[in-house]
Amino acid sequence: MPKKKKFKGPIIKIKKLGNQKAWGTAWREGRYSYIELDPRLGAKRFMETAIHEQAHISLPDFSESKIDRLGKEICHTLWRLGFRRVLAEPHSTPTRISK
Asked: Is the CB of residue 72 less than 8 Å from the CB of residue 49?
């Protein structure tokens, strides 16, 4: 049986997007997908934008209004569950909390 390819997700870049007048962007080039996010966003808006941009990649046929609503709803749920962005030092290994 052929081996399944592992999903690696998009290539993510964190950079100021002032010239694009956007909080984030997403696109595909061939078999690769890319997401750019503006680091100046607050924690919750950053999460919402990341979800929004991933939804554009995963659900390319959805309208902008559906993607926008989906991003907001998922972000709201994850935020209420306590998910937050944790900034780690470069090249640090996260603490393992489960086996």
From this structure: no
